[in-house]
UniProtKB/TrEMBL annotation:
SUPFAM superfamilies: Histone H3 K4-specific methyltransferase SET7/9 N-terminal domain. It comes from the Bacteria. Keywords: Signal. This is MORN repeat protein. Residues 1-22 form the signal peptide.
Amino acid sequence: MKISIYLTLLSLSLAFSSGAQKRQEVQYNRFTINGEDGSKQTFFAEDKRINSKSDRLYSWYASNKITLTEGGFSGKLLNGEYTRYYPNKNLAEKGIFKFGLRNGLWRSWSSEGLLTKESNWIEGIETGAFVQYNSDGKQEKKGELKNGKLHGAIQLFSGSDSTSVQYYNEGKSISEEEYINSNLFRKSGSYLGRTFGKLFNKNKEPKQK
Protein backbone atom coordinates (compact mmCIF):
# COMPACT_ATOMS: atom_id res chain seq x y z
CA MET A 1 0.00 0.00 0.00
CA LYS A 2 2.80 2.40 0.94
CA ILE A 3 4.61 1.58 -2.31
CA SER A 4 1.44 2.31 -4.30
CA ILE A 5 0.98 5.69 -2.59
CA TYR A 6 4.65 6.53 -3.14
CA LEU A 7 4.46 5.70 -6.85
CA THR A 8 1.30 7.80 -7.22
CA LEU A 9 2.91 10.80 -5.52
CA LEU A 10 6.06 10.38 -7.62
CA SER A 11 3.99 10.28 -10.81
CA LEU A 12 2.11 13.45 -9.82
CA SER A 13 5.36 15.17 -8.92
CA LEU A 14 6.92 14.35 -12.28
CA ALA A 15 3.81 15.48 -14.15
CA PHE A 16 3.76 18.77 -12.25
CA SER A 17 7.48 19.28 -12.87
CA SER A 18 7.05 18.60 -16.59
CA GLY A 19 4.09 20.98 -16.83
CA ALA A 20 5.95 23.71 -14.95
CA GLN A 21 8.95 23.29 -17.22
CA LYS A 22 6.77 23.64 -20.33
CA ARG A 23 5.15 26.78 -18.92
CA GLN A 24 8.56 28.23 -18.17
CA GLU A 25 9.72 27.52 -21.72
CA VAL A 26 6.67 29.25 -23.20
CA GLN A 27 7.10 32.23 -20.91
CA TYR A 28 10.81 32.35 -21.70
CA ASN A 29 10.20 32.42 -25.46
CA ARG A 30 7.46 35.06 -25.28
CA PHE A 31 8.55 38.69 -25.36
CA THR A 32 6.96 42.11 -25.09
CA ILE A 33 8.37 45.42 -26.30
CA ASN A 34 6.71 48.51 -24.88
CA GLY A 35 7.33 51.66 -26.92
CA GLU A 36 7.86 55.06 -25.34
CA ASP A 37 4.76 56.29 -27.19
CA GLY A 38 2.57 53.61 -25.60
CA SER A 39 2.69 51.18 -28.52
CA LYS A 40 3.35 47.51 -27.83
CA GLN A 41 4.61 44.39 -29.60
CA THR A 42 4.13 40.86 -28.30
CA PHE A 43 5.79 37.90 -29.99
CA PHE A 44 7.63 34.62 -29.64
CA ALA A 45 11.31 34.22 -30.48
CA GLU A 46 13.92 31.53 -30.03
CA ASP A 47 17.52 30.65 -30.75
CA LYS A 48 17.56 28.53 -33.86
CA ARG A 49 20.28 27.60 -36.31
CA ILE A 50 18.97 27.64 -39.86
CA ASN A 51 20.37 28.02 -43.34
CA SER A 52 19.19 31.52 -44.22
CA LYS A 53 18.25 32.50 -47.77
CA SER A 54 20.00 35.51 -49.28
CA ASP A 55 16.81 36.93 -50.81
CA ARG A 56 14.72 36.89 -47.62
CA LEU A 57 14.23 39.47 -44.88
CA TYR A 58 14.61 37.86 -41.45
CA SER A 59 13.05 39.32 -38.31
CA TRP A 60 15.07 38.70 -35.17
CA TYR A 61 15.11 39.92 -31.59
CA ALA A 62 18.03 41.21 -29.52
CA SER A 63 18.64 44.05 -27.03
CA ASN A 64 14.91 44.67 -26.62
CA LYS A 65 14.28 45.44 -30.29
CA ILE A 66 13.28 43.67 -33.49
CA THR A 67 15.65 43.95 -36.45
CA LEU A 68 15.11 43.02 -40.10
CA THR A 69 18.15 41.76 -42.00
CA GLU A 70 18.38 40.48 -45.55
CA GLY A 71 19.91 37.03 -45.80
CA GLY A 72 20.85 36.58 -42.15
CA PHE A 73 20.25 37.29 -38.46
CA SER A 74 22.11 37.84 -35.21
CA GLY A 75 19.67 37.10 -32.41
CA LYS A 76 16.54 35.13 -31.60
CA LEU A 77 14.40 34.46 -34.66
CA LEU A 78 10.76 35.45 -34.37
CA ASN A 79 8.82 32.20 -34.41
CA GLY A 80 5.11 32.09 -33.69
CA GLU A 81 2.32 34.60 -33.25
CA TYR A 82 3.18 38.30 -33.55
CA THR A 83 0.90 41.17 -32.51
CA ARG A 84 1.48 44.90 -32.61
CA TYR A 85 -0.71 47.51 -30.88
CA TYR A 86 -1.16 51.23 -31.32
CA PRO A 87 -0.72 53.55 -28.32
CA ASN A 88 -4.54 53.61 -28.01
CA LYS A 89 -4.46 49.79 -27.56
CA ASN A 90 -6.10 49.08 -30.93
CA LEU A 91 -4.61 46.29 -33.00
CA ALA A 92 -2.12 47.47 -35.61
CA GLU A 93 -0.84 44.22 -37.11
CA LYS A 94 -1.14 40.51 -36.50
CA GLY A 95 0.30 37.39 -38.09
CA ILE A 96 2.63 34.43 -37.78
CA PHE A 97 6.40 34.16 -38.12
CA LYS A 98 8.17 30.92 -38.93
CA PHE A 99 11.86 31.06 -38.09
CA GLY A 100 12.12 34.77 -38.83
CA LEU A 101 9.92 34.84 -41.93
CA ARG A 102 6.31 35.91 -42.28
CA ASN A 103 3.98 33.02 -43.07
CA GLY A 104 0.26 32.60 -43.59
CA LEU A 105 -2.43 35.25 -43.23
CA TRP A 106 -1.39 38.70 -42.02
CA ARG A 107 -3.79 41.51 -41.14
CA SER A 108 -3.20 45.20 -40.51
CA TRP A 109 -5.51 47.87 -39.09
CA SER A 110 -5.73 51.65 -38.89
CA SER A 111 -5.40 53.32 -35.49
CA GLU A 112 -9.21 53.66 -35.55
CA GLY A 113 -9.56 49.88 -35.66
CA LEU A 114 -10.48 49.49 -39.34
CA LEU A 115 -8.88 46.82 -41.50
CA THR A 116 -6.37 48.22 -43.99
CA LYS A 117 -5.00 45.03 -45.54
CA GLU A 118 -5.18 41.24 -45.51
CA SER A 119 -2.61 39.22 -47.39
CA ASN A 120 -0.91 35.86 -47.48
CA TRP A 121 2.81 35.20 -46.99
CA ILE A 122 4.91 32.18 -47.89
CA GLU A 123 8.42 31.97 -46.41
CA GLY A 124 8.79 35.73 -46.14
CA ILE A 125 7.31 36.59 -49.53
CA GLU A 126 3.89 38.19 -49.96
CA THR A 127 2.23 35.73 -52.33
CA GLY A 128 -1.40 34.77 -52.92
CA ALA A 129 -4.77 36.40 -52.33
CA PHE A 130 -4.92 39.89 -50.83
CA VAL A 131 -7.49 42.56 -50.01
CA GLN A 132 -6.70 46.23 -49.47
CA TYR A 133 -9.18 48.54 -47.71
CA ASN A 134 -9.72 52.31 -47.86
CA SER A 135 -9.87 54.73 -44.92
CA ASP A 136 -13.55 53.85 -44.41
CA GLY A 137 -12.77 50.15 -44.06
CA LYS A 138 -14.31 49.25 -47.43
CA GLN A 139 -12.63 47.13 -50.08
CA GLU A 140 -10.41 49.19 -52.36
CA LYS A 141 -8.37 46.57 -54.19
CA LYS A 142 -8.53 42.79 -54.38
CA GLY A 143 -6.66 40.11 -56.26
CA GLU A 144 -3.45 38.15 -56.16
CA LEU A 145 0.18 38.90 -55.42
CA LYS A 146 3.13 36.93 -56.73
CA ASN A 147 6.51 37.54 -55.12
CA GLY A 148 5.11 40.76 -53.65
CA LYS A 149 3.87 42.06 -57.02
CA LEU A 150 0.37 42.41 -58.48
CA HIS A 151 -0.48 39.39 -60.57
CA GLY A 152 -3.52 38.40 -62.63
CA ALA A 153 -6.87 40.22 -62.56
CA ILE A 154 -6.96 42.96 -59.91
CA GLN A 155 -10.36 44.35 -58.93
CA LEU A 156 -10.54 48.06 -58.09
CA PHE A 157 -13.48 49.45 -56.10
CA SER A 158 -14.06 53.19 -56.43
CA GLY A 159 -17.63 53.38 -55.10
CA SER A 160 -20.52 51.33 -53.82
CA ASP A 161 -21.37 50.07 -57.33
CA SER A 162 -18.27 51.01 -59.31
CA THR A 163 -15.78 48.26 -60.06
CA SER A 164 -13.01 48.03 -62.63
CA VAL A 165 -10.37 45.43 -63.43
CA GLN A 166 -6.70 45.85 -64.26
CA TYR A 167 -4.44 43.05 -65.42
CA TYR A 168 -0.87 42.31 -64.35
CA ASN A 169 1.85 39.77 -64.94
CA GLU A 170 4.16 39.82 -61.90
CA GLY A 171 3.84 43.58 -61.45
CA LYS A 172 3.80 44.50 -65.13
CA SER A 173 0.55 46.00 -66.44
CA ILE A 174 -0.88 44.03 -69.38
CA SER A 175 -4.01 44.19 -71.53
CA GLU A 176 -7.05 41.98 -71.08
CA GLU A 177 -6.15 40.18 -74.30
CA GLU A 178 -2.62 39.47 -73.05
CA TYR A 179 -4.09 38.29 -69.78
CA ILE A 180 -6.39 35.81 -71.52
CA ASN A 181 -3.80 34.65 -74.04
CA SER A 182 -1.21 34.05 -71.34
CA ASN A 183 -3.62 31.68 -69.56
CA LEU A 184 -3.30 33.76 -66.39
CA PHE A 185 -7.08 34.01 -66.07
CA ARG A 186 -7.37 30.25 -65.58
CA LYS A 187 -4.50 29.99 -63.13
CA SER A 188 -5.30 33.04 -61.01
CA GLY A 189 -9.07 32.63 -61.27
CA SER A 190 -9.15 29.09 -59.92
CA TYR A 191 -6.57 29.94 -57.26
CA LEU A 192 -8.45 32.97 -55.97
CA GLY A 193 -11.72 31.09 -55.96
CA ARG A 194 -10.21 28.52 -53.61
CA THR A 195 -8.32 30.86 -51.33
CA PHE A 196 -10.42 34.01 -50.84
CA GLY A 197 -13.12 32.22 -48.90
CA LYS A 198 -10.58 30.24 -46.93
CA LEU A 199 -8.46 33.26 -45.97
CA PHE A 200 -10.76 36.23 -45.69
CA ASN A 201 -14.29 35.06 -44.95
CA LYS A 202 -13.43 34.41 -41.33
CA ASN A 203 -14.58 36.47 -38.38
CA LYS A 204 -12.67 39.73 -38.16
CA GLU A 205 -10.38 40.44 -35.24
CA PRO A 206 -11.78 42.72 -32.52
CA LYS A 207 -10.83 46.36 -32.77
CA GLN A 208 -9.38 46.48 -29.29
CA LYS A 209 -7.39 44.16 -27.16
